[in-house]
């Protein structure tokens, strides 16, 4: 089943090559929602997007620890488009579906090598990114996950081939890959804390 991407959420640590994918998203009239740093980067490139805090109507807090952890974000990702109850609840709350999640995690390995203070390492543990990946993986029937800039080109090809849509086979492929990525990232974060 092909799914048209209407809304994409982008929150990345590594912003290299981001302009390439953002321009393709705009070509297919895909709305972009982005976190603070990503939002500023895209605005500099004159890419139209909505900042997460404006989208959720809730400012980030606790020194940036809470940005994407919001019902409007996670409901949009976890929304099962085939369930009437979900459709009704989304409409009632005026929530929009999120069809594409583009995130990459903090370079934790490099952080551990450079920073010795445990208090500073703790601040680099990604909470929002892995949470969104888990949510998107759970709902891969409807949502695409991209967690590496190496995969941008494959997404671009898919969108061009199907005119802004993705196939279930494509979504399932990335669902598996990025769950594996998540499973390898979490132990690294824990190891970094234990060793310091």
- Helix count from the secondary structure assignment: 10
Strands of the biggest beta sheet: in what spatial order? 4-3-2-5-6
How does the major sheet shape up?
Answer: 5 strands, parallel
CATH class: Alpha Beta
Here the CATH topology equals Rossmann fold
Shape type: globular
The SSE order reads EEHEHEHHHEHHHEHEH
Helix content: 40-55%
How many angstroms separate the termini?
Answer: 48 Å
Helix/strand/pairing category: alpha/beta
CATH architecture: 3-Layer(aba) Sandwich
Which regions are unreliable across 5 or more consecutive residues at pLDDT < 50?
187-196
Average pLDDT works out at 83
Q: Which value, in Å, is the CA radius of gyration? A: 17 Å
Give a description of the structure.
The protein is of the alpha/beta class and 196 residues long. The chain has one domain (3-195): Methylglyoxal synthase-like domain (Rossmann fold, 3-Layer(aba) Sandwich), CATH 3.40.50. The chain is built from ten helices and seven strands. It has helices at 18-27, 36-44, 52-56, 71-78, 84-93, 108-114, 118-122, 128-138, 152-161, 168-195; strands at 3-4, 7-12, 31-34, 50-51, 100-104, 144-146, 165-166. Strands 4-3-2-5-6 form a five-stranded parallel β-sheet, with helices on both faces. Strand 2, helix 1 (18-27) and strand 3 (31-34) form a beta-alpha-beta unit. The chain is globular and about 50 Å long.
């Amino acid at each position: 089943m092909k799914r048209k991407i209407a809304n994409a959420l982008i929150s990345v640590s590594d912003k290299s090559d981001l302009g390439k994918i953002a321009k393709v998203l705009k070509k297919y009239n895909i709305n972009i929602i982005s976190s603070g740093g990503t939002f500023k980067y895209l605005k500099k490139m004159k890419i139209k997007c909505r900042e997460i805090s404006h989208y959720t109507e809730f400012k980030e807090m606790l020194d940036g620890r809470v940005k994407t952890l919001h019902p409007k974000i996670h409901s949009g990702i976890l929304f099962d488009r085939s369930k009437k109850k979900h459709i009704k609840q989304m409409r009632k709350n005026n929530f929009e579906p999120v069809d594409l999640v583009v995130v990459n995690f903090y370079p934790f390995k490099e952080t551990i090598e450079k920073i010795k203070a445990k208090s500073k390492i703790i601040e680099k543990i990604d909470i929002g990114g892995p949470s969104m990946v888990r949510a998107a993986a759970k709902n891969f029937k409807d949502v695409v996950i991209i967690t590496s800039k190496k995969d941008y080109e494959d997404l671009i090809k898919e969108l061009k081939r199907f005119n802004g849509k993705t196939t279930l086979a494509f979504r399932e492929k990335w669902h598996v890959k990025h769950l594996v990525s998540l499973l390898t990232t979490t132990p690294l974060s824990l190891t970094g804390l234990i060793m310091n």
